[in-house]
Amino acid sequence: MNLKYTIIEGTLNGEMKQCEIPFALVFEENGIYFLETFLPVDFFEKNDFSKKYNLTGKTEKGYKIEIKDLTYSLYQGKNRKAKFVCRNYLKLTKENNISKELIGDREDSILFIEIEGFNTKFSDYTDVKKIRQYGEVDDFDINFDHTSCSMYAQIDGFRENYFHLVFSKSVSNDLISIDFTKNSGQGILTFKHYQKLKKQFIGFLSLINGGDVYVRRELTGKTYKVDGSDSQIVYIYSFFKKNTSNTSHYIPINDNHSYSSSIFQNAFLECFNNFYHSDIKLDLVSIISSLNASFTTSGIQQSYSILINALEKLCSNYQKSNENLIENYIPNELWENTIKDNLIKVLKAYKPQINSNDKNNFSIFNSKIGDLNRRKNSTVEKMYELFKFGCIPINENVNNLINKERHTAVHNGEFGKNSTEEYINYLKLDHILRDLILNIIDYRSYRKHTYEYATIEERRKAYPKRKKEPVTYVCSQPYRK
Predict the structure, then answer these.
(1) Which of 8, 168, 261, 401 could, after both became Cys, cross-link 123 (CB 3.0–4.6 A)?
(2) Helix or strand or coil: residue 278?
(3) What pLDDT, on a 0 to 100 scale, did the predictor assign at position 223?
(4) How far is it, in rounded angstroms, from Cα 315 to Cα 433?
(5) What is the DSSP letter of 47?
(6) What is the pLDDT of residue 42?
(7) DSSP result, 292-350
(8) Quick count: other Cβ atoms within 10 Å of Cβ 238?
(9) Residues 478, 122: Cα–Cα separation, whole Å
(10) Please, which domain of life does this record's source organism belong to (predicted)?
């Protein structure tokens, strides 16, 4: 384990009790942070292993340190040595030596974040001019080292909605850094604003990445280093380092810099706001997590099961959120005053034949007429309604998924006649789920299909261009050259 911080004084707070700690060490191993210290006499109790603790203290370098959600991993009664694992984050705060006149009373903004699991080819390059004694040197070795794009997000309670993002390799490690400080002509994303949209922002990154994305560090405060390596306040999250090699290329941000150039600007400027508000209604983030989990699961049957459960969950979420859902197939006045009575008359005319095998047949069937015009909210009906909302073309492939493949998978545990058909069925379900989310948020850039469940013409007909409402971008920063 790597020693990261030495704590020279601190307080350990738990439910209904706390203690002072004069000394502690913080270690890191494979992304997880651990705390080792010695506890006072009689502080530890046997049931404490199920409890969480928070620590506040001061490091030997003078930083204020806060560690959130510590749980016991070891306790030695002989010398009272305790070892804790951090289940959330560490927060480091440096003393601010800059006068208040220079920084004012402005609210802390999010400056940089570092993310794990994100794979992309950068779309933009830094132009470096080389000049020697005899003049400028021609150098055509272009290095695409960052991606710059704008993001639109209109959220209740926050006025500014137009922000700038720069993706690049972190100078501190192999992670991807997102820089929010290059905001000329755009807005400042405050830390409170960022926390409000953080879940959807990371879920959106996970969608376009085709694999789960995790935040390792968040940099905020009044001061920072321009290269993104440090700031006055740093949050460090404790979790195992993630394998970033296996991600879907359905949105091909890792194929070529020209793709990512188009994708990033379209996705963040045109789609993120839609994603934020759609997630609140439909919980898209959990569906994306299922998509990514199925992609990294080796067994096709297990992957298909994950996706079919995700699809049914999305169907239920859509129906719950649909305030305009009409309960009746036929307008109720027409049904009650005309059609229902005529059906009963026809039945009565054939009553002897209906009761020929069982004298109760007519009564049983007649009692069901009242429910014929009510939606039974079956899974099949929910799927057709969701697919219509998500602009999925209804063709033979899609009908088979709804009426046959889903049923045999859920009820009989059969996913196809052979391994080839199982794989095709899985790809179809994967692509339909991704298209549902992308169509809902109106993503209009590149998609890389491995399997075509519909023709281009069928897709165009089901997913026509939408009329966009004019957007007013609100920002606070003047344009600077």
Answers:
(1) 261
(2) helix
(3) 92
(4) 11
(5) G
(6) 87
(7) HHHHT-S-HHHHHHHHHHHHHHHHHHHHHH-TT--SBSS-HHHIIIIIHHHHHHHHHHT
(8) 20
(9) 27
(10) Bacteria
Low-confidence ranges of the chain (pLDDT < 50): none
Question: What is the C-alpha separation between 221 and 233, in angstroms, rounded?
Answer: 5
Strand 176-179 and strand 109-116: pairing? antiparallel
Helix ranges, 327-464 (H): 332-334, 340-349, 351-354, 361-368, 379-389, 396-400, 406-407, 419-440, 456-462
The answer to whether 228 and 177 have CB atoms below 8 angstroms apart is yes
Report pLDDT for 104. 65
Whole-number Å distance between alpha carbons of 108 and 73: 35
How far apart CA 441 and CA 266 sit, in angstroms, is: 11
Of 118, 34, 119, which is closest to residue 73 (Cα–Cα)? Answer: 34
From CA 5, how far away is CA 109, in angstroms rounded? 26
Per-position DSSP letters for 442-456, written without gaps between them: T--S----SS-SS-H
Name the amino acid, one letter, at 372: L
pLDDT score, position 16: 85
Burial 425-461 (b: 16+ CB within 10 A, else e): bbbbbbbbbbbbbbbbbbbbbbbeeeeebbeeebbee
Rounded Cα distance between 142 and 161, Å, is 33
Which helix (H) or strand (E) element contains residue 84?
strand 81-86
Three-state SS for 167-201 is EEECCCCCCEEEECCCCCCCCCCEHHHHHHHHHHH
- Per-residue pLDDT at 11: 96
CA 316 to the chain's CA centroid: 19
Say how far residue 92 (Cα) sits from the centre of its chain: 26
Quickly count: other Cβ atoms within 10 Å of residue 311's Cβ.
Answer: 24
d(CA 480, CA 475): 14
C-alpha neighbours within 13 Å on the C-beta side of residue 220: 17
Q: Which of 160, 206, 157 is nearest to 183 (CA)?
A: 160
Q: Is 115 exposed, middle or buried (0-12, 13-18, 19+ CB in 10 A)?
A: buried
Check residue 38 and report its DSSP letter. E
CA distances from 191 to 160, 194, 228, 265, 478 (A): 13, 5, 16, 23, 20
**Extended strands (E) in 89-227:** 89-93, 109-116, 124-125, 130-132, 135-137, 144-152, 162-169, 176-179, 214-224
Is residue 367 exposed (0-12), middle (13-18) or buried (19+ Cβ within 10 Å)?
A: exposed
For residues 159 and 192, the answer to whether their CB atoms sit within 8 Å is no
Q: Which amino acid is at 330?
A: I
Residues across the chain? 481
